[in-house]
Here is the input.
Amino acid sequence: MTENSQKPSVLIDVKDLNSGYGDRQVLYDINLSVNDGEILVIMGGSGSGKSTLLKNMLGLKEPSDGRVLVHGLDLSNASQSELLKLRRSTGVAFQGGALLSSLSVGDNIKLPLRQHTDLDENTISIMTRLKLELMSLADCEDLMPSELSGGMLKRAGLARAVIMDPKILFFDEPSAGLDPVTSVELDQLILKLRKAMNMTIVVVTHELESAFTIADRIAVLADGELVTTGSVDEIKACTDKRVANLINRSPRDVQIDAEKYLSRLTKGAK
Amino acid sequence: MSFDCSEHLNYKVLHLTGEIDLSNSSEVRRCLLDIINQDYSVIVDFSELTYIDSSGMAILVEGLNTANKKKTSLKIAAANGAPRQVLELTRLDQVFTLVDAVSDVKE
Amino acid sequence: MFAQIEKLGASVIQKFEEVGRLSVFLYHTVLGLFSRPFGFQELLKQIAFIGARSMPIILLSGLFTGMVLALQFYDVLARFGSVDLMGSAVSLSLIQELGPVMTALMVIARVGSSTCAEIAIMRNEQQFDALTCMAINPYRYVMAPRLLAALISIPLLTAIFNLIGIFGGYVVGVFIKGLSGTAYMQTIIDTIIWSDLRMSIVKSFLFAVIIIWIAMGKGFFVHLEKGVSGAESVGRVTTKAVVASAITMLFADYIASSFLI
Here is the structure.
């Protein structure tokens, strides 16, 4: 039994990441790794810094300190061609889909194939339709993005993200704005994708149910800090207040001062 | 990745080895379509195929469609592991005729 | 008192930052012109949008401008007994000044505003992030075709404006004021020299760059606008783009005129 077969290999390594906008620091000393073939969910409330963390992991933003390594490649120091090669095997599904408004859904999904491969147009067409079918968007190929609902846009964005069967998939807020049924279907799709295509998937979300369904590991972010990382059970059992708050979704219990409350409600009344 | 052709009864067998992805699927496409355009029926042997991506699947779909138009057939043999899962994920396992082994094809 | 100075200083620094950002933006866009594969499809679409579909508005405004110029000049020239110079007066004004400037203003109103809004919406919807993550250079794919389309369309539109304006002047001069048609055309041929045409051409290219650069640049950085987001930010940045490009264009007009006259 070799050591390799025990230790999962690390695909993405975030080391001592500090990041912010101008004077405003958003992330403090983040250390996080994503293992090959796992589904990692990054959870946090709004303002926790998860969007910034995602941007850093995608190479869309430079850290003020620290590094992000993908396949051993330091994103800040990578050459254009190294970055290009990496991006070809990485898919990103953005919130709201981020489809190009001037292209039809079909042309949007075909875009990476047309730009980066010389596959025959027949092959490209069948590949696109396979992905559309997978996302239950079979009739939408010729529609324009403006004609799709929010849920459909997300699924189209996901179709585009996985059209080249990437090794790594990032998914930004998959369930935001979706009804519970579609949300569950999307979760199942994520699990199926990992299984069949052996994808490593990083999901950023604040939806608990989804997180618990799909995650191998969960990383909890609060106020720009990585509070803890662990399996679903470990997170559920975590005693840290910030984690517990997130999990239990309890609005912080406020003791009401009846008199003061009443006067706040009726201020200014004649 | 490598592939070679052999024969079984009156079928041509396209034997795929290794991984089929964006970098080599076009080659496979040329070979497959050549065989079909010569009016042969094809069995695609997956027994030594370890991975196939959507471009590979798309090629098989195009092959099946072409074969249907020519009234010949395309079957897939010995689909296991990851390739099998891809067939199931894309629901193409309900579209292709799947057999367990090339030798199972009797006529 | 110091607070006022601080504020002033901060806004000056902001302005410099913005100019810097826009300059880097232009640099990348120009580089994008030379990257493969170039977005020909998008180029054609944009030429149709900027050029072809601006024709009605250019023809109308050109015609009316020429007609008004003729009326205006008739009045002035009559006082000096030189109404036969009408042709050259109208054509010189158009070719040197009004052609490029009016065309630019019409294009700013139509193309500047919508291009800015379009780019701003793309930014807000993370379409540029998506392109970057797909390893597609947004400057090559989105911006460069628009720049080239503007450089092709706007000088042509200017030339058309000039021609239709001269025609408008002809109509007023000959049919309303009773001047001789041949005299009108002859004075034009006699007076207009290459440096006049050169001025028109140089200005139209210069204005083309200014218009499309500011429209795209302001839209591209909409996410840096403080205090607004979503639809409101798009509206604000579009207004700023229209105003900034008009003023910059007029300033450039003065500079160009002082060098080229």
